[in-house]
Amino acid sequence: MSASTASRQQRREEASLQPVDTLTEEEARAELASLAEEIKRHDRLYYTDAAPEISDADYDALRRRNTEIEARFPELIRTDSPTRRVGAAPAAGFA
Fold first, then answer.
1. Please, what's the b/e burial string for 45-83 (b: 16 or more CB within 10 A of its CB; e: otherwise)?
2. Closest CA to 31 of 85, 89, 73, 87
3. Residue 39 lies in a domain
4. How far apart are CA 20 and CA 69, in angstroms?
5. Number of independent structural domains in the chain
6. Is 92 among the domain residues?
7. How confident is the model over 11-26, as pLDDT tens digits?
């Protein structure tokens, strides 16, 4: 795992320590933006590059956190939300 990935993961873990029901709207907006980018990156690493950097359990925790925040703040659901797409483009080499 790269240093930047470890740093991002540590920031995510710290943010996820705050219960969803205590997030302000601004905190939720920022976290949803961060989660959208992070999940998109992990989807690419897993589906396209075949080089995952986190465990399935950690990935599932990111998606769960995103879903929980969206449930509490439905008005903040992003157009690029991970809940609005499935997987990523297939890796090269598949017909």
1. bbeeeeeebbeeeebeebeebbebbbeebeebeeeebbe
2. 73
3. yes
4. 6
5. 1
6. no
7. 666 656 899 999 999 9
**What is the rounded distance in angstroms from the CA atom of residue 72 to the CA atom of residue 54?**
26
Residue 8: inside a domain, yes or no? yes
pLDDT for position 85: 79
Q: Report the alpha-carbon distance of residue 56 to residue 62 in Å, rounded.
A: 10
19 in a structural domain: no
DSSP state of 41: H
Q: What is the pLDDT of residues 15-72, one digit of tens each?
A: 568 999 999 999 999 999 999 999 999 999 999 999 999 999 999 999 999 999 999 9
